[in-house]
Amino acid sequence: MSSPPVRSLRTHQAQIAAIVQAIAAGDAVGVTDILAAVTPGGGKSLLPVIAAARLIGAGIVDRICWVVPRDSLRLQAEEAFADPTWRKALGHDVDVRAADNTPDPCRGMQGYITTYQSIAAAPELHLAEFRRHRTLLVVDEVHHLPALFDVAPDPLAEPAAEIAAGWSRALLPLLETARLRLLLSGTLQRADGRSILWLPYRTGRRAKTREVDLTAEGWAVVGYSRSQALAERAVLPVVFGAVDGEASWLDEDRAPAGPHRLFSHWPTETTRPALFTALRTGFAESLLREAFTAIRTLRAERRAQRDAAPGVELRGLGKMLVVAPDQQSARHYADIVRGWMPASQKATVQLATSDERDAHQVLARYRLMAEPSVLVTVAMAYEGLDAPEVAVVAALTHIRSRAWLEQMVARATRVDPHAGPYATQRALVFHPDDPLFARFRHSIETEQGTVAKKVKQRSQSTLPLWLLDQIAAREPEDRGIVPLESNALGIRYGMLRPGPDYAMHRPEQEAAQSEMLQPPSVAERRLRQRIGEMVAQQAVEDEGAVRAPRGEGLYHRYNAVLKRRTGDKPRSQMTLQELEAAVSWLERNRLADHVNLLEGDPRYSWTVRQRREWTPPIGRTDGKPRGAGS
């Protein structure tokens, strides 16, 4: 395959080049952080290449570490540095490698690419590398990382929320140690409304909100909005095919409900049950048929334009991406689409889910080869998948958060260099015509997209929140509704308008904020409760994993350890800053490792002695030699 012609830099890429050039020349010595808010599909994967090439060449940094949210994106990151077109255009010779958690991740190269998960599994290994070398840290899709001060216990939170908090705890020391930081995101909002790790925030214009401070000291912020990308023909316009339908189900009490319409002007109590049912019954097949017909028509038209015979593999014909609500549905959807294919083409429909052993190979083939032409997935491909040939998306997902849907839609907005002139290309997204999706479309057309708003916490019950979380995780999956049937009623099309230049928004153009985000007394009460929960969780975890001797009062002893560690000051007397510092310390340390602080206190002499003499039972050493303690 021949290389495409040398491309000129887009606006945001040129801005990054100018910023790093100023840093290299000593004209921007105060800049330590660069935030690039680039609309999904706008081409942010080149930004680390530009930054590393200039900064390593100028001797400002020695290495680059590029952190991505999933393993399938590491290959794409390597490709960005290896692309011969950009190596020639930028005049760089920086080589990086996809690394695992083994010593010397660079192996003689100028950098390495790793994942959030890898860093969380071996944080000390990566921190040692940062301490040995001046490092440019690139954090891709930084919105995955919640700010640690904004992580509060939630008895009904999904396990993914705690995983994300663990990523933040592991990444924070690297952020603190890096010589320079480049943070990349297609959205400056998290789906749960929390703040994003490391980003500077200020009080928002609306009550009880924060928003990213785009003029914070030491920060250089580069924005590339959808309207800018469309103007520069960096992304494709989007046409939505909204499919209406009706659904019937059995509710939690096994009483019949419906049929209820998907479409309404605002969400009702039937919106989510109807959507849940529609995605698992006949409606889903009807929407799939619309998307399948669209991609088959497009591919036939492009074959005819090239005078290509059927069956000949060609790049640029267009591909379809199907996003399912769960893995069982994904397998069902794949079987449906294969059933519509001739026997000779059934293999062109591929499945990529976390349970499939060859999922990463399937993703790579889908991106880089003419076939497969249809990919069915759940979440693996929704973010960061660089497959410009995707022209049609069947959005059969129940998720309705703005950040998630915007990333999914962006899989189809990349310009395909093999598909002919820009004016002949478009992205077509078929989706259920429910009010929640309509709200998403409205939000990305009208909102700035930099706001973090605290999610209302559930009230504390008589059981501790950590225990409720474990109980909720064991609830049977079949206690909800039972889908019965659904069908599609009609389809309407609409064009997505460009949307605001949110990343270019300047705070000084706003009216002054008149209402504080949260009164100090409320924040202090929340932090004291958070500290109590964290201490209790560590106590239960250590007893459950046999990392500490069993006995009454471990929670109280751990509280005493924390009090010693924070200067013998009761939490009731701590300032807001001292409480925040205590939370931060607990997020990064285990109280069990600091029991020695109780030495000399007769109230806890038994604890100290037991801790010193105790050894884990055989088979429960937790990876440590017998007698090593915990």
Structure description:
With 630 residues, this protein is an alpha/beta fold. It folds into three domains: 11-224, Tandem AAA-ATPase domain (Rossmann fold); 238-495, P-loop containing nucleotide triphosphate hydrolases (Rossmann fold, 3-Layer(aba) Sandwich); 520-613, no CATH class. Helix content is 37%, strand content 17%. It is built from 19 helices and 18 strands. It has helices spanning 11-25, 47-57, 72-82, 84-90, 116-121, 123-132, 159-177, 226-231, 271-278, 282-306, 327-340, 359-368, 402-410, 435-446, 465-473, 520-544, 554-565, 576-588, 605-613; strands at residues 33-38, 63-68, 96-98, 111-115, 135-139, 180-185, 201-203, 209-212, 219-224, 238-250, 256-261, 319-323, 349-352, 374-377, 390-395, 427-432, 451-453, 482-495. Strands 10, 11, 12, 13, 14, 15, 16 and 18 form an eight-stranded mixed sheet that branches. The chain has a seven-stranded parallel sheet with strand order 3-4-2-5-6-1-9, with helices on both faces. Strand 5 (135-139), helix 7 (159-177) and strand 6 form a beta-alpha-beta unit. Helix 6 (123-132) runs parallel beside helix 7 (159-177) and helix 16 crosses helix 17. The longest helix has 25 residues, at 282-306. The protein starts with 10 loop residues before the first helix and ends in a 17-residue tail after the last helix. Residues 1-6, 457-479, 503-519 and 618-630 have low confidence and may be disordered.
